[in-house]
Amino acid sequence: MGLKTFFARRSLRTRDDQTTKAAELTFRESIYPLCLVTLLFFLWGFSYGLLDTLNKHFQETLGITKARSSGLQAAYFGAYPLASLGHANWILRHFGYRAVFIWGLCLYALGALIAFPCIQAHSFGGFCAAIFIIGNGLGSLETAANPYITVCGPPKYAELRINISQAFNGIGTVVAPVLGSYVLFTFSDDEALKNVTYIYLSIAAFTFLLAIVFFFSIIPEITDADMEYQAQETTTEYDSSHLPFRKQYRLFHATFAQLCYTGAQIAIAGYFINYVTEIRSNTGSALGAKFLAGAQGAFASGRFLGSFVMRFVRPRKVFLAFLTMCVVFAVPAVVAREDAGLSMAYAVMFFESICFPTIVALGMRGLGRHTKRGSGFIVGGVFGGAIVPPLMGAVADMHDTPTSFVVPLAFFVAAWSYPACVNFVPWYKNVADAFAETDVGTDGRLNAVESKVMEEKKLGVEQHE
């Protein structure tokens, strides 16, 4: 293989009007690309979990209010729509998924490098700027990774795939608070900040290396033509893939639900340490960070359990049950104290687990040629993480953190409108079920195709005789 051929096979540009058959991949054919992309989920889970720990740490070391510390979340999640609706989505539509993966990893690494001098200078504003760049990188990765996991493989298992991949995101959110509890709250302020710089330098080195791995890896690209074929194979009377983008109303509802749900999830995790130290006796920040790690462990466990249940129960029903439980347990979290309050917060985070990836998978059902653009909107809903935490922080400063739980509770209720529609409104429900019942990419579909080929060959032989 010549050098020209070598790089040609690894071209970052893919024509969207060509069918690559990527939407018909079997489970076995999709294993390598799915494993590679799933690694990205761990990366942003780790980054997000570390951010929640830093939120409390900066309140103590820099003497800032809870509302101001939410500037970390505002910078991080405020970058998401800029990526998902802007630069990352443009690259996705004009080049392809692999190009966005490389772009996002490079931005992530750049932001981690910029964080180094900002932490050294004790500049909260500068660190927020670095987090904004990191947010652009992770927003780019989510813009490509979530839809890629959803459409890479048999459509009927889309929700199952994305929830399993997102479970590794949950593992990352567990590792980060545990690490933070040892490197932030058990050292002097100066030494703790020095430890943070080492963490971000390590992140930069690893993500640059991973970007190189993605460049040299050959993974299937999924084009608009592939998604249009998939939509046609699962068409129903409620199919809207042929309509212009502005009339994809199910997508816009999913985006609204994502904004409300994600904002509530981020707010609860961001102030979890504040919450547990205020409601529970003899609980400092270091122990609070360990409790946060346990809560994130419950979150990750919920994703694995939810993924298992989805193998036997329709994902839309599991989604409705889990988000309903978020509302149910968030109510007593406002007034409960001691271990009872901690248990309520743990329960909320357990049932949050499958909501984000399931909104992505269901929201992208039947978009056809609008899939890439639509994924940008749903991921852009993560902007809720820049809206709800400051509101919760403001209420916490005026009253206390337990009382501020009413803010994410209200957003959970607003998000609940989407699973209600997916389960009880035919225009939503039938499209979701059509994809759950299709045999595209399954062994059954392959056996049918092989049988047809064999029959045609047999018929050809008989005619020849």
From TrEMBL:
Q: Which PANTHER family match?
A: L-FUCOSE-PROTON SYMPORTER (PTHR43702), PROTEIN TSGA (PTHR43702:SF3)
- Lineage, top-rank taxon, reads Eukaryota
Presence of keyword Heme: no
Keywords associated with the record: Cell membrane, Membrane, Transmembrane, Transmembrane helix
Which molecular-function annotations from GO does this UniProt entry contain?
transmembrane transporter activity
Recorded topology in the membrane:
Multi-pass membrane protein
Q: What is this protein called?
A: Glucose/galactose transporter
Please give the coiled-coil regions recorded for this protein: none
Species of origin: Zalerion maritima
Q: Single GO cellular component annotation?
A: plasma membrane
